[in-house]
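so i finally got all the pieces together for this one. its two components total, 545 residues if u count the protein bits. some of the lines might not be protein, just check the labels. i wanna see the whole assembly predicted at once instead of chain by chain like last time, that was a mess tbh
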Amino acid sequence: MSEMPWVDASGIAEAVAEGRTSASDVVESTLAWIQTKNPEINAFTEVTEARARAEAAALDAAIARGMKPGPLAGVPFAVKNLFDVAGLPTLAGSRINQDRAPATRDAVLIERMRAAGAILVGAVGMGEYAYDFTGENAHEGDVRNPHDLARMSGGSSSGSAAATAAWMAPLSLGSDTNGSLRVPASLCGVFSLKPTYGRLPRTGTFSFVDSLDHLGPFARSAADLALAYDALQGWDAGDHACAKRKADPAYPTLDQTPEALRIGLPGGWFADSCTEAALAAAERVAKGLAADGQISRPNLDEAEAGRAAAYLITNSEGAAFHLERLRTRAADFDPDTRDRFLAGAVLPAAWVSRAQRVRAWWLKSALAAFRSVDALIVPATPVSAPLRGQKHLDLAGRRVPLRPSLGLLAQPFSCIGLPVVTVPVFEPGEMPIGVQIVLPPWQEARALALAQKLGREGVAVAHPPSNLVETDAHAVA
Amino acid sequence: MDWETYIESTADLMALPIDPAWKPGIVGFLALAGEMAATLDRVELDDAELTLAPVYSPDAFGPAAENE
């Protein structure tokens, strides 16, 4: 058994900055842990050992010369394999992309992590072309849930969430088109941030649905999430949807929580679409934030149509993006992905046009709800992790197909671009479930402060998988 | 709805090769898309309820933006 690695990004950065350890030591313990744990979890598709060692050595040398290290000094991180990594083909979870030439430059968000001192330790698996909520992949194999290897990790940022949950990467980056940062965070029991659409540049990543794609971090605490988010912010010319906004640092205000928070806990369609356990987790979060009992139950049933709009826009726009690959290499797709893309390639245009109008209508409804509440609290998934291979979910007496339904509570919010922090709500030894904290546009810093409050009060904690706790190794941190 | 016939004609129009073994899966997803479209039809949209098209902005790509 390998010694436990460092698991806390802020602790690593502090220890490296103070000279209590070196980036090289942190990287070595992380690589050893990946070698031990990854074979059972199958998160990594590429471990960039040589690169990680070289970057760590360079950072240690710079610190020895007196350079002040960045806020993520020596923190290992992993990226979903739709991020360009110089020297690797950008797979996006597919067999087809294995034929692509290696990327010549890192994605912009990797460059920003590096500039802050973080060390890339590898690329991790994902659902093919990000069209997935399960973590299953016919080419790369399933990414397994670190809390129970028989269960789904959630997708499509499956490897990112699993790597962070299993201590193989204190931070990881993923993408979210309909819920791919939030579903795996929920199933694997870690924190994630889906920022406002347009906040973080997607330059150097492989698209799925341009008008819905977001990038964001996973971490094991709100503080680590804020550290990563602050390192990632800023406009970039390479992403036509990136908003020209000044960075809004979250870490400095992380412990500032408004006194009288008005919390909205939607019932109706949201409550009817999930299990009692998911509702109980959301209730716990709402009570943790609205200490003086200011919890309202707004009717947000427009979300059902918002979700339907997201489904059709995704299906059509995603299929159009892959049309040539569907024409020439359909047999090389993952069968679960291929059939849905092929359906999307022949949708009636009027359905998609109406979906765009309904999307705008749903945005107005959601923004109106924020006149009477400061935050909306919604379960991130309707259930905790299903068994791998499961094909249906039973929700409120209805049997629904699992693949499109696992993210149905997340879909309404990415389609209108709202910022969401997903927090883990479970006790040690239980299967995790996540809860979304949804705020008005551009309020990521406030959402992170709310997540931090929940962490301080013990409501939202990324408990390690029990099989990790049972090891007799010790934490260096 | 006869989705199999629909697939055959539209796939031909779009030059998409469809293996017969894939049809049940595609039919399932088209039927699901049809349910989503029906949900959208139930929304009462006013004629004034429109959505903005993406608008080309020259400074989003050029040197002006880089100077900001």
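Chain A has 17 helices and 15 strands.
The two ends of chain A are 18 Å apart (CA to CA).
anyway lmk what u think
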